[in-house]
Amino acid sequence: MQQSNMIFDTGLKLSDLSSGVFKRITIEKEDIVIGLKNNMLYAFNNVCPHKGASLSKGSLNGDNIVCYMHGYEYNIFTGKLVNMKSWKKDDTWIEQNERWRYSDDLKIYKTMIDNEKVFIDLN
After folding, report:
1. Phi, psi of 114 (to 5 degrees)
2. Which candidate, 88, 105, 104, places its Cα nearest to that of 96?
3. How many helices (H) and strands (E) does the chain have?
4. From edge to edge, which strands make up the β-sheet containing 40-45?
5. Are 12 and 1 in contact (CB under 8 A)?
6. Are the CB atoms for 50 and 103 separated by under 8 Å?
7. Exposed/middle/buried for 24, CB within 10 Å: 0-12, 13-18, 19+?
8. Which residues share a beta bridge with 42?
9. Which pLDDT score is estimated for 88?
10. How many other C-beta atoms are found inside a 10 Å radius of the C-beta of residue 18?
11. Exposed site from 19, 66, 79, 86, fewest CB < 10 Å?
12. pLDDT of residue 57
């Protein structure tokens, strides 16, 4: 079975993006964060894989997006979870359920540039 073409024009030009600043766009009901860092484009789903918070409300820390809700950090290029904030109030504190801390990796999208226009692959 052949995959359908899922490449979309983001409506952005390369000149619309500046390093360290990201934009939030919606394509085909997908909420996406897109930006430029070290002259490399990145794009990821705006839903935090930990508890579903909007990552566009977070901030960049190097190559990581930091979720504003629980402080989880994901690499914007690989999508990997790279840092989990500790919730221990003190040494005697015990988590009730370790599944609460679990997180998948970030959903990353492939980006392309054609004639200064930024395109995204939603596959």
Report:
1. -140, 115
2. 88
3. 0, 10
4. 22-27, 30-37, 40-45
5. no
6. yes
7. middle
8. 35
9. 63
10. 10
11. 86
12. 97
Report the pLDDT averaged over residues 45-69.
Answer: 95
DSSP 3-state percent helix, strand, coil across the chain (nearest 5):
10, 40, 50
Contact 60, 66 (CB under 8 A): yes
- Give Cα 2 to chain centroid, integer Å: 28
Other C-beta atoms closer than 10 Å to the C-beta of 25 total 19
**Structure token pair of residue 93:** 């504190």
Residue carrying the six token digits 């983001």: 10
- In this prediction, residues 79-92 reach a mean pLDDT of 79
Report the alpha-carbon distance of residue 54 to residue 47 in Å, rounded: 5
Q: Which helix (H) or strand (E) holds 73?
A: strand 73-75
Cα separations (Å) of 22 from 12, 29, 55, 84, 109? 12, 19, 11, 22, 14
